[in-house]
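Supplementary Text 2. Reproducibility record for the structural model of the 405-residue chain.

All settings were left at their defaults, and a single model was retained for analysis rather than an ensemble. We include the record here because the model underlies the residue-level annotations in Supplementary Table 4.
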Amino acid sequence: MSSVNRRRLLIGGIAVPAAALMAGGGYRLFGGADTASAADSVLRAGDLKMPPGTPFRLVALSGKGPMGQTYDRPPNYETPAERLIGRENYPYTDNDYYYVRYREATVLQLNPDNYRLTIGGASAANEITLSLDDLQARATTTVGAVGMCSGEGRGLHHPMIPGMPWTKGDLSCAEWTGVRISDLLKEVGLKDDAKYASFGAGRQLSLTKPEYWRTYPLASVQQNPDAILAVKMNGEDIPLWNGYPVRLVVPGTWAPTWTKQVVSLEIAATPHPMEWSGRPITPNKLSVFSMISTPTDGTRIPFGRKVEITGVAFDDGSGITKVEISQDDGRTWQPVTLDRSYGKYTWRVWRAQIGFSGRGEQRVLSRATSADGKVQPLEPDPEKLANGGRKETASRTFAAVYEVV
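Retained model, structure tokens:
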């Protein structure tokens, strides 16, 4: 059995059983170069035989590519790490590989011809109803944004964090086009007691909460010109699995509150009584985060060769100023090269060329620093983790693990 199969993956300083990772295969070089000339080149993802970047069985939903089946019912599928950065929509995740997250066993399917969005509520001065055609005609705002679940990396922790056992594919990035929520709020008008905006997606399979609602502090969507009700994803209709025909997108916030199949927007003085999470309503801002996307975990790399590693980094919109990598479990760090910015909410692609000083299991960590001085933590905060701090878990530093042969 190879050392990759026996290894324990580190998430910061936390050891995790390697059963959560797929074992790697061999490696191959393109072009038939001989050993002497090949040793002078840098290996890139296309030169290596990589595992898919998810430990789960690969299954293709209708209209999707093969993705890691975390759960079948409800449908929860993570993006293979090598497909996070799109091949057709760089640097955005291609639509057919954008991760899928649902809480109900069956996905709500809305007829676009009969679709209606109702905007009103107790703290709205008026009520309006818009068709899908109305929304598409008004969809003039386009913004790139990372969608990330607070369960990112939960399945890599030991002991396991309760909930969906995501590994590294519970996030994606897309360019969204839609209607500014601030414009819709101006149209209905707001009463003096308006404090919360709640977004409803229709009926759910739950006796205690037969409707699905997510609530934002009103100011966080009213004062954000990039908060939209999206009707397009990477220039195309939003896939059914990602919220067709209309999805809430609030860039810079955690995606579990980005309601899919939105049919209602209600303004009120209090959070909606059917708010799904049951937790205190906050601005829900993302933490600073980075991760390595390729080579994927378990890749075998020939000793004596340099390899290019690629990753992504993002935060809540202040901007990424630096990404560093470590090959000694965080004792020392070296800066990497950042790709240009595609927008303050879009992840920054980064690259580095590295070598390895020995054979066997090798770990590489990455960490990001944002413009407001926040640094991605190496390990979870035990106190916050004990108090249900799943967002703290999702922003940790994760290791990429290779076998140098």
